[in-house]
Amino acid sequence: MLEIKNLHVAVEGKEILKGLSLSIAPGQVHAIMGPNGSGKSTLSYVLAGRAGYDVTEGSIIYNGEDLVALVPEERAAKGVFLAMQYPVEIPGVTTMTFLKTALNSQRRARGESDIDAVGVLKLVRAKAKTLNVSEEMLKRALNVGFSGGEKKRLEILQMAIFEPKLAILDETDSGLDIDALRLVAEGVNALRDPKRAMLVITHYQRLLDYIVPDRIHVLAGGRIVAEGGKELALELEAKGYEHIVGQAA
Amino acid sequence: MTLALNLDRKAQAAAVVHSHGVPHRRIEDWKYSDLKAVLGEQGLGAVMAEWLVGSLPSGVEMFDLSQPNPPAWVMGHIARPTQNVMRAASLALSAGGVAFRVPKGAAITAPLKLDFTGPGHVRGLLVLEEGASLTLVEGVGVTDFRNVGFEIVLGENARLEHVRVSPNAADAVLVEEVSLHIAAGGHYRGHFAGFGSKLARMELEIALEGEGAEAHLSGVSVLDGKRHSDVTTHVIHRVGNSQSTQLFKHVASGAARAVYQGKVTVAKGANGSDSSQTAKALLLGEGAEADLKPELEIFADDVKCAHGAAVGDLDAESLFYLRARGIPESQARGLLLQAFLEDAVAEIENIDQRELVRTELLSALKAIV
Q1: Which are the contacts of A68, defined by CB distance < 8 A and separation ≥ 6?
Q2: Of A105, B136, B252, B299, which one's alpha carbon is 20 to 30 angstroms from that of A59?
Q3: Per the domain annotation, does B327 fall within a domain?
Q4: How does strand B159-166 pair with strand B274-284?
Q5: What are the pLDDT digits (tens) for A97-118?
Q6: Residue A248: predicted pLDDT
Q7: Which residues of chain B lie closer than 8 angstroms to A84, CB-CB?
């Protein structure tokens, strides 16, 4: 589903990713682990199409298509979803309005018909319940005054509503206590699907206790320096990044 | 009061106009709105502009100012002496206009809809007696040049909500001066939506004259092309424990220009006054300009005054967030602009008027994103 080859990405002229290669098949959950500054967030942003993240070399092929050529909204409509580390607060736009606008924008881009307000409300309510997202949260301005846990839950709720083919979770565990983490992880696990691929980006092994990946890649210095099964996370936790990164160098 | 006195005030006003002439950019108050330049040779003229009232809500009294023998409530309040040139011009250069009175204690639920139309000068007077309440919806007809001088008097505990929408009119020069006197416990809410003209200026001079008097002003403008929109306010806290708030939001694209000049004066002895002023502008495009000038003048103690102004562009992170969720760029920009204006729109208490303003903003935003 996703094929990244020799990816080089520069931000403001500074190279952050330096030849990253990665391939994920449908149904798989991969994890990217790495120390701070290794390029984890850069990878998530470049996949979602954020301006200012320039691909200088290499390629990202998504379902046979050059992802780099698409603007963010086109990627979203084609099923790419990034759960952000820091979801933005937008005063003046209610969460419900945002969800409805986004859902119908994606549908329209795919040539599907709009879902009316009542339909969207039903859909959102059904999914919100399991993620413990309250009616009251949906009425509030998007992410404004939400706690860290509420923001992350709303990200996962969006994932449940938009039903992406490729979901990238950028540090979804950051800022969460253990209960919130469990709730979010359960939400993510419920969305595991033979047709859906997930890329879980995290600094800590903790999240991977709950979302168990098929494969783990260790990112350091803009490259994948180690790969392995889920047991790699435990090794990292026990020995630290320096040990693995040092070995690779 | 006699007709002679009225003529005397008219002569005084004419003298003010004569000595000052047409305001231009070298006068501080008109720095960003060069009326003389846009009027050119035609000058102020001496034509009488018109007014139109759809249906007069029951309980509201009306008097046509071009008619003889005005009642006492008109003579008691109209044409207070002024050094404001344009307000003086509206008296000196025209004999027409309209006056309204809401008697003591009358709560009028239907809005009073008043349109000013046609070119020239015209006057308005609105008197709310003690405990009266009203919603005034002011319409602005498109014409070459019009100057409106409006006087509003709120008695003790009177309540007025005033909504004014100024249309997108590329060739019009539309100027209005509102002068407000608010007695103790009086409550004024003024909301001004503007879509810009060749020159559009709304000037408010508000005197809070009794304890507990309040004035809450808000405004939004969405400007494109070469439109200009100027809101100039002067709020004077004459006594203590009076309150004023101001919230103005502007969106300017193309080569448009948004102006906010707001002065708050807290007079000597007006202790415990509370005022806030916020003006923000988003500029879309290199040629757009915003001149935001909040100003404070304090002669009292123990006052709470806050003011701030900010000019910027749309937040890139918010824009990316919306686009990453599938919302196309232009729509995402529209949504963010709408969100930017929303708190100022939400200040409108009358639901119908609030929705009307929202709808007009939406269509104006669609045209510029």
Answers
A1: A55, A59, A60
A2: A105
A3: no
A4: unpaired
A5: 999 999 999 999 999 999 999 9
A6: 58
A7: 321, 324
**Domain range enclosing B165:** 2-314
Locate the chain A residue with the closest alpha carbon to B340: A92
Nearest CA in chain B to A89: B318
Q: Which ipTM score applies to this complex?
A: 0.95
**With contacts defined as CB-CB under 8 Å, which chain B residues touch A143?**
none
| Angle subtended by helix axes B351-368 and B329-345, to nearest 10 | 150
pLDDT digits (tens, 9 = 90+) for A152-186: 999 999 999 999 999 999 999 888 888 889 988 99
Tell me, yes or no, whether B301 lies in a domain: yes
| A58 Cβ neighbours under 8 A, 6+ residues apart | A4, A5, A6, A7, A8, A19, A20, A21
Rounded to a whole number of angstroms, the distance from the CA of A48 to the nearest CA of chain B is: 6
A-interface mutation test, from B314, B317, B327, most A Cβ less than 10 A away: B327
Q: Answer whether residue B330 is part of any domain.
A: no
Kindly report the three-state secondary structure assignment for every residue of chain B: CCHHHHHHHHHHHHHHHHHHCCCCCCCHHHCCCCHHHHHHHHCCCCCECEEEECCCCCCCEEEECCCCCCCHHHHCCCCCCCCCHHHHHHHHCCCCEEEEEECCCCECCCCEEEEEECCEEEEEEEEECCCCEEEEEEEECCCCEEEEEEEEEECCCCEEEEEEEECCEEEEEEEEEEEEEECCCCEEEEEEEECCEEEEEEEEEEEECCCCCEEEEEEEEEECCCCEEEEEEEEEECCCCCEEEEEEEEEEECCCEEEEEEEEEECCCCCCCEEEEEEEEEEECCCCEEEEEEEEEECCCCCEEEEEEEEECCCHHHHHHHHHCCCCHHHHHHHHHHHHHHHHHCCCCCHHHHHHHHHHHHHHHHHHC
Q: Three-state DSSP class for A100?
A: helix
Question: Contact B191/B357 with Cβ under 8 angstroms?
Answer: yes
pTM: 0.90
On whether any CB of chain B is under 8 Å from the CB of A76, the answer is yes
Pairing mode, strands A166-170 and A80-83:
parallel
B313–chain A Cβ distance below 8 A for any pair: no
Query: Which tokens in the block code for residue A25?
Result: 């098949």
Residue B163 included in any domain: yes
Q: Is the pLDDT of residue B352 over 80?
A: yes
B338/chain A closest Cα distance in angstroms: 7
Tokens of B248: 């103005």
